[in-house]
Amino acid sequence: MSHTPRRAILVVSFGTSFEETRKKNIDRIEQDIKHAYPSCPLYRAWISKWILQKLRKRDQIHIFTIQEALEQMLSDGITELAVQPTHVINGLENEAMKAEILSYAGRFDKISFGNPLLTLETDILETVRELKAAWSSLPENEALVFMGHGTSHYANTVYAALDYTCKDLGYPNLFVGTVEAYPSIDSLLRQVTAFRPAKVHLTPFMIVAGDHANHDMAGDDPSSWRCRFEAAGFPVECHLRGLGEYECIRRIFLRHVQEALLAL
């Protein structure tokens, strides 16, 4: 006897220990997906063991690991699974997440994966255009610098491609760098100094405005991006706004969810 498939969406995020940015970013992305697919149960899993442990200890909040979410879905009778990561790129975490979920392939009838934010060339073009539109009130003589995370994975080339795309589309005052890879803060300082802006605006190119945004970008340590740009003589303003707060970014994730569901 054939059974009717029960579909669900699993949203996988790295996670954050900052409650306010979780609500504005991860929760908002999940709410938009729920709203778009009301008949499809939505489950959440976070990757960072350290963050999950911290939330349990500090706030008595329990959020599923990937394994816990998959076991819960199986016990709920889910047979077809669309997985949507809130990752920015197809890096190490995305690969590890896919491998872990695919180890359950024999226990679900079907599993499909939505793409991270920046996967296809169209994702990059749309993101740059939409972010430019979102910052349309920025004076042309002021620089907007996005701080990405960065990775040792070859997918890190996306950040340099983003920066190049900003210039190629005619936005010379938009810059993209990373905390942990290339383009680095040193590259950015050279580029921004050559642009000679009246002011520098710093904002994260990460799903949440969490630890990196608060400390590496906006912090008081002399090595923070704010302090480095101030030391170079620029007035600096920090904007603690995660990518999940932009409706245009959430729309791209929604498109990727739709593609994952169509693939089931």
Your description of this structure?
There is one protein chain. This protein is an alpha/beta fold and 264 residues long. The protein has two domains: 7-118 and 246-262, Rossmann fold; 121-242, Rossmann fold (3-Layer(aba) Sandwich). Helix content is 44%, strand content 16%. A four-stranded parallel beta sheet has the order 2-1-3-4, with helices on both faces. A four-stranded parallel beta sheet has the order 6-5-7-8. Helix 6 (157-168) links the parallel strand 5 and strand 6. The radius of gyration is 19 Å and the shape is elongated. The chain starts with 6 loop residues before the first strand and ends with a helix. The relative contact order is 0.16. The model has no long low-confidence stretch (mean pLDDT 96).
Keywords:
264 residues, alpha/beta, Rossmann fold, four-stranded parallel sheet
Q: Short description, anyone?
A:
With 264 residues, the protein is of the alpha/beta class.
How would you summarize the topology of this molecule?
Blueprint: E1 7-13, H1 19-36, E2 42-46, H2 49-59, H3 66-75, E3 80-85, H4 92-102, E4 110-113, H5 121-134, E5 142-148, H6 157-168, E6 174-178, H7 185-195, E7 199-204, H8 211-217, H9 225-231, E8 236-238, H10 247-262
Parallel strand pairs: 1-2, 1-3, 3-4, 5-6, 5-7, 7-8
Helix pairs in contact: 1-10, 5-6
